Amino acid sequence: MLARIDEFAYEKSLLINIGDEKGALLDAAVQRVQPALALELGTYCGYSALRIARSAPAARIYSIELAEANADNARQIWAHAGVADRITCVVGTIGDGGRTLDVLTARHGFAAGTLDFLFLDHDKDAYLSDLQSILDRGWLHPGSVVVADNVKVPGAPRYREYMRAQQGTHWDTVEHKTHVEYQRLLSDLVLESTYLG
Fold first, then answer.
1. pLDDT tens per residue, the chain (197 residues)?
2. Residue in 6, 20, 27, 181 annotated catalytic
3. Keyword annotations for this protein (predicted)?
4. Is 96 an annotated catalytic residue?
5. Domain limits at 178?
6. What CATH number does the domain containing 57 carry?
7. Is residue 124 annotated as a catalytic residue, yes or no?
8. Beta-carbon contacts of residue 167 (< 8 Å; ≥ 6 apart)
9. Vertex 174: Cα angle to 171 and 176 (nearest 5)
10. Domain count, the chain
């Protein structure tokens, strides 16, 4: 499924999922963490959740998506790939006043210290506020890893500034220099941040 999506993006029409080059960085981070519980913000077509599922076969994965149509497409792709039993798409947004966070708590068992891995690939302006909302719930634990895509293009400057300011105190961040998905002309950044507590 991943290869077919990549092929479509290269040959037919550009897609805005993480893509194959940056996807390898996501894979490596997930493989290091081997999360029991992973959360991604921004489902789109379900591509990155597929990569997480492949890299961490024991993980339970939750994906938050604002658009119901995207959620429906992703669920079909996950079913076709045989991983629908491990990935749940929740339609909503972290910035909705706590409703989606409450659903994750009440229906899906999110609690203090349970979240091992978080992937950010949604509204770039919401990266920092959504991370703060998750921190406020206490779901992360020392050693939890947050991977953020598109930090340079289209850019998440407030998020990057925050991680730089917190370096060595609450976070240990590595900035991976890479390219915008499915091409080699525009450079991009993927941030991989380990929570120190």
1. 888 887 888 888 877 888 899 999 999 999 999 999 999 999 999 999 999 999 999 999 999 999 999 999 999 999 999 999 999 999 999 999 999 999 999 999 999 999 999 999 999 999 999 999 999 999 999 999 999 999 999 999 999 999 999 999 999 999 999 999 998 889 999 999 999 99
2. 181
3. Methyltransferase, S-adenosyl-L-methionine, Transferase
4. no
5. 2-195
6. 3.40.50.150
7. yes
8. 173
9. 150
10. 1
